# Entry
Amino acid sequence: MAEAYRWRCFACESVNEPSSVTCSNCGFPARASGRRIAEVQASKLGAQTRSDLSNSGGAFEKFDEYLRPLSPWRRAVAIFGFAVASGGMIWLKVTFSWLQMGIAMLTFFTGAALMGAASIGAKHHA
Ligand SMILES: [Zn+2]
# Structure
């Protein structure tokens, strides 16, 4: 006699009764082909990547909003600070030496401090 197991849906990962032929949550078939499963998982991954992209787009929009009210030279300081901070971040990601990590961290914080200084100064003089 064959033992009946509960099964986990490949598409939405909810657990289903052994008797059910399709997922009770999303209707995905219990015996899907490998190709169908790959398709579903690829589309899930695609959705994730798209939401990541839109998140980073939001960050750039925020940075733009942050720059708009600043006077030109403050904007230049903020952009310079942003570039320095980004450079520090990239350096931090690629380096394997502790000394360079320390310098990269300092670079990042210097850039962040410049960005902060540009906006704090603007608030005081506004
Ligand atoms: Zn499902």
